[in-house]
């Protein structure tokens, strides 16, 4: 298959499998100590560096895709959670996923250049805001979420998660997100 066909979205099965494995390993390694090294990703995947560079020419390209993938999964979870939970429970379950997303966001943003960071932040705000609004709107319709709750407010309040280290996020994150859910409730006791 030609390089142009691969870029066009019709990757060979083995190439797609390599790409998925690279992203999975990079997500795991970005959480580790020190700087993410591309040769460590290639070695952990059991592939050559040339294969890695065909998929991700730079470290920033790889990290940006790790972040985008994490954000896309977070956004896609909102409608699924609404289909399987009541609105307020869906929002609470989504917040659990936000905590994991915040860890990846923090680690990726710490590893990329400032210009890449600004591009990634701008990319995430729209889709995440839409997911939050979907969850809030369902809650408002059901009478579970207060009428004045806005997606931007929630984003500002959950933004602190990416600033916490893992120990603090583990210790305080669930309680703080529970407090946020309680603050979003309509007809609080």
TrEMBL record:
The keyword rRNA-binding does not apply. The lineage of its organism: Bacteria, Bacillati, Actinomycetota, Actinomycetes, Mycobacteriales. InterPro entries: Homeodomain-like_sf (IPR009057), HTH-type_TetR-like_transc_reg (IPR050109), HTH_TetR (IPR001647), Tet_transcr_reg_TetR-rel_C_sf (IPR036271), TetR_SbtR-like_C (IPR049445). This is TetR/AcrR family transcriptional regulator. Residues 16-74 form the HTH tetR-type domain. Keywords: DNA-binding, Transcription, Transcription regulation. Residues 37-56 bind DNA. Pfam families: TetR_C_43, TetR_N. PROSITE patterns: HTH_TETR_2 (PS50977). It comes from Nocardia tengchongensis. The keyword Transcription regulation applies.
